[in-house]
Amino acid sequence: MLKAWGEKPVTLVSPWDTWSRDFRIVPIFQTIIMKQECDDPIAVNHYFAEDICGELIAFSNENKTPIRILINSPGGSVLGGYMIIQTIEHLKKIGIEVWTVNFFATHSMAAIILMAGTLGRRYAIDGGVTHTHSGTQGSSGKPDDVEEMIKFQARIKDWMYNFISKNSKIPEFRKAELEIGEPLSSKSKELNPRLRIKLIKDFLQIERFLTADEAKLAGIVDDILHPGDKRINQIFSSSLK
């Protein structure tokens, strides 16, 4: 017999807390949206990024088992995302696989974090959305201060463009778009670094909402998880092989 809702046991520990602790899963979800003074919603903010980095480092000190990052986030602070990506890069350097999964929607900086995973272990759920754009920024204050802020922002942008160039096929994807839908080919001539950056900047000029298939073509993810795919259950398993 079904029990009335009020008679059911209540737990203060969410499934995500359990998975995080026992299964080495780190969720970056919309539940962490906070508000700035200007009342604009942000997600990957500095405080949250510190918690994510701390959790990743703690897992890395336990053993070398793969760590899985599940993402369903509207994005947020570029510097917060940069902090998370630097930690992911550290884990990969010391021999720990980092799986990144678009668990439905990765927007803005969250999409950059998605492509930071270990090559071959970056996934998108079928039907998921990957959103990219050039981002928003602004500076105010004394002229000299504004000039320094602009220089700093340009340095961060350069880092982001180079990271995208190294960890995606967005330049090739954009080149194929410009050539009137010519399909990407593994035999395509390799693009020089300057052209790659130019194509990335061009790609990010408009708001883009990529399907899972498009995200795979653009090299943001390596594979798509369709309903029934055994790897979905594997992601939520306490033992990975």
Structure description:
This protein is α/β, with parallel strands linked by helices. It folds into two domains: 14-133 and 207-241, 2-enoyl-CoA Hydratase, Chain A, domain 1 (Alpha-Beta Complex); 137-205, no CATH class. It is 44% helix and 17% strand. It contains nine helices and nine strands. Strands 1, 4, 5, 6, 7, 8 and 9 form a seven-stranded mixed sheet that branches. It has a two-stranded antiparallel ribbon with strand order 2-3. Strand 5, helix 4 and strand 6 form a beta-alpha-beta unit. Helix 2 runs parallel beside helix 3 (78-93) and helix 6 (170-178) crosses helix 7 (193-203). The longest helix has 25 residues, at 143-167. Residues 31-43 have low confidence and may be disordered.
Tally of separate domains? 2
Mean pLDDT: 84
Radius of gyration: 20 Å
Q: Using the 3D structure, state the CATH architecture of the largest domain.
A: Alpha-Beta Complex
Number of strands: 9
**Global geometry:** globular
Q: How would you name the CATH homologous superfamily of the largest domain? A: 2-enoyl-CoA Hydratase, Chain A, domain 1
Major sheet summary line: 7 strands, mixed
Q: Tell me the β content.
A: 15-25%
Ends distance = 40 Å
The CATH C-level class name of the largest domain: Alpha Beta
Give the uncertain stretches in residue-range form: 31-43
**CATH-assigned fold name of the largest domain:** 2-enoyl-CoA Hydratase, Chain A, domain 1
Which structural class should the secondary elements be placed in? alpha/beta
String of helices and strands: HEEEHEHEHEEHHHEHEH
Count of discrete alpha- or pi-helical segments spanning 4 or more residues: 9
Helical residue percent band:
40-55%
